[in-house]
Every structure is written in structure tokens, then in C-alpha cells.
Description:
By secondary structure, the protein is α/β, with parallel strands linked by helices. The protein has eleven helices and nine strands. It has helices spanning 18-31, 48-60, 72-76, 98-101, 167-172, 175-185, 194-202, 230-235, 257-265, 282-299, 301-313; strands at 7-14, 37-44, 64-68, 108-112, 116-118, 135-139, 158-166, 207-209, 239-241. It has a seven-stranded mixed beta sheet, sandwiched between helices. A two-stranded antiparallel ribbon has the order 5-9. Helix 1 links the parallel strand 1 (7-14) and strand 2 (37-44). The chain is globular, with a radius of gyration of 21 Å. Bound molecules: manganese (II) ion. Residues 113, 115, 161, 241, 243 line the site of manganese (II) ion.
Amino acid sequence: xxxxxxxxxxxxxxxxxxxxxxxxxxxxxxxxxxxxxxxxxxxxxxxxxxxxxxxxxxxxxxxxxxxxxxxxxxxxxxxxxxxxxxxxxxxxxxxxxxxxxxxxxxxxxxxxxxxxxxxxxxxxxxxxxxxxxxxxxxxxxxxxxxxxxxxxxxxxxxxxxxxxxxxxxxxxxxxxxxxxxxxxxxxxxxxxxxxxxxxxxxxxxxxxxxxxxxxxxxxxxxxxxxxxxxxxxxxxxxxxxxxxxxxxxxxxxxxxxxxxxxxxxxxxxxxxxxxxxxxxxxxxxxxxxxxxxxxxxxxxxxxxxxxxxxxxxxxx
Length: 316
Ligand SMILES: [Mn+2]
């Protein structure tokens, strides 16, 4: 197969995400050496020097990167809900603009959030059969049924962190226009995850269900697998998505947060990566302690067996 530009990626971020962006790039290049990667990028708030460094890093890995300018004033006028847990930025809307920006030779584009890692070969996505649908995406079963936005089953709601886009269909169906109209005209409807809700409304019955390995959210990680066996699990996965708490904060509950640290050490900015302490309420501290205890239990089945035997011995 002709490998020429066979992986077309779209990434969007702002200055707060430059380090995770580098970690994502490191994971991408390590696992896609055999591919010819083009990265389409919308970025805001970073210095020219940062941009030059990014270009140099991509080129050193035989990739190509294109930066696009969009009207940030316009985007900043779109609603960004206040979220204490998980601050959102206007950058979530950038994904809506890519289909109009990329060169016409690009027929299929893989948009991924920058709170992700690419842990597998992405070559197959260029030719994957989308069953005639406009995008491929992964079901987000963590959500309650969204009948409020006209979606009647959990299976019908997708996560917008990974979108395999058929550009011609997207334009023909006017998906960006529909989503932006919903965002600006029905803000009350989509308070939680506006871009994701709007895309789910605009693409209702027009998306193909990709296997979970293309967007491994927290809910798709088998928590009971001991950490030392995750390498095996990761061999079959393509994209890890740190939805919810981010792995660069101390309260992250994603079972694969250590994988982020592994790739961070291989990124151009290992010194910038550390787990930032988060101030927790007493209640959240308790929940986190419990989550960590459960992980310990799963990670050390042999210790748990010993402990059980001891308990039996002392007659509890
Ligand atoms: Mn995300």
C-alpha cells in the first residue's frame, strides 16, 4: 500500500495543553514509525518559539505539521460552561473547523483530543469502512441516556474526543453549521459538554460505531487487570483517552495514568512533566483513597490472598 500521507490527524489545543500535546506526539511517533503522518493543527496562545520547536520535533520524526489560523474572537463568543471539576476551554470548538481548513487532497481526517495517547498503529483508519456514515466514533456509555437532546439510548451517544471524519460527507451534511447553530441558539440544551452534545445532535444516526480500542476512555479499561499486565492490554489498543481527571494531576483516577508518565519521559519536555498536587475536599479525598485502595487490591492479588489467610487464621 502506498504510505504517502496515510495518517491525517487533526489536533487542537491552547497554551495550557502544550506539554500534553508533546506527550501525545511522542506516543504517536513511537507507535507509527511505519506511517507517513500529517498533523493539522489549530493552536492558540503559544509563542512563536514554541511553534518552531514543535515543527522541528515533528520534522525530526519525519512527519509534517500544518498550523491553521482561525478567528479566535469568534470562537471565544461561543459558550464555554464553567466547570470546577474539569475546566473546559474554547479549544473544544476548534474541531468543528478542520473540514474547511485541510487541503482538498485530504478525504478522511482523524480528529483526536490532546488528552490522549496514540498507543497503536493508525494506518488502518485511512481505509476503514464507515458504512456510509459521516463519522466514526466510540460510544460513551458513561453518560446517562440523553433524551433531553433527542437521543434515546446510551448506545447512541458518542464521545467527541476521537472522530474519524469523512470530509466530503461532513461538508455535504453541513455538520459544522448545524453544530454551531445548536451551540449558539440552544445553549440551555447543552450545558455539560456543548461541542459533544451539539455534534451528537447534528450527527444523529449518521455515525459509525468504532471499536472501543480507538477511544479507550476510563470505562473501557478493565480495572481488575493488575498494572503489570497492562502492557498486554495496551498491545490491542489504539488511542487512550484521559477523559475526566487528567493524568498530570494527583487526583487522576484513570487506571492507565502511569502510561502518560512513561511517554512523558520520552517526550521533548520530560522536565516539564510532573504530577501537580490538587487540593481536595475531605469527601473527594476519601473517594480517592478508596479508589487507590481498590487499585492496590487489583495490583497485588498475591498479597490479598495472604491477607485473607491471615484473617482466617485469627478467626475473624
Ligand atoms: Mn478529552
